[in-house]
Amino acid sequence: MKIREIEIIRLYLQGLTIEEIVEQLFVSPSTIKFHRSKLFERIGVKNIIEAISYVISNNLI
Predict the structure, then answer these.
(1) Burial bucket for residue 48 (CB in 10 Å: 0-12, 13-18, 19+)
(2) If you count DSSP H runs as helices and E runs as strands, how many of each does the chain have, helices first?
(3) What pLDDT score does 56 carry?
(4) Distance, CA of 32 to CA of 23 (rounded, Å)
(5) What pLDDT, on the 0 to 100 scale, is given for residue 28?
(6) Is the pLDDT assigned to residue 1 strictly greater than 90?
(7) What is the C-alpha separation between 11 and 48, in angstroms, rounded?
(8) Helix (H, G, I), strand (E, B) or coil at 17
(9) How distant is the alpha carbon of residue 33 from its chain centre?
(10) How large is the greatest C-alpha to C-alpha distance in the chain, in angstroms?
(11) Residue 60 pLDDT more than 90?
């Protein structure tokens, strides 16, 4: 996982929404969605719930 993907998944784990993540990282919503989709591809999942489960199950964070 790349650094930005890790940052984003950590913020999701804290319960933040895309809008709140945008405010934290000072980027656009489309940037968050881009990194999120790259993360999904990288770990082979289809949504944020699966991504969170994968990350936790594999002790990646």
Answers:
(1) middle
(2) 4, 0
(3) 93
(4) 11
(5) 97
(6) no
(7) 12
(8) coil
(9) 8
(10) 29
(11) no
The encoded tokens of residue 52 equal 């969170």
pLDDT surpassing 90 at residue 45: yes
Structure tokens at 4: 């930005």
Q: Letter for the amino acid at 57? A: S
User: What are the φ/ψ torsions at residue 21 (nearest 5 degrees)?
Assistant: -65, -40
13: tokens are 């784990």
- Written as six digits, the tokens of 6 are 């890790």
Place of tokens 């000072």: 26
User: Residues, the chain, total?
Assistant: 61
Give residue-wise pLDDT tens across range 14-42: 999 999 999 999 999 999 999 999 999 99
Q: At residue 54, what is the residue type?
A: Y
Question: At a CB cut-off of 8 Å and minimum separation 6, what does 10 contact?
Answer: 61
**Placement of tokens 């949504």 in the chain:** 47
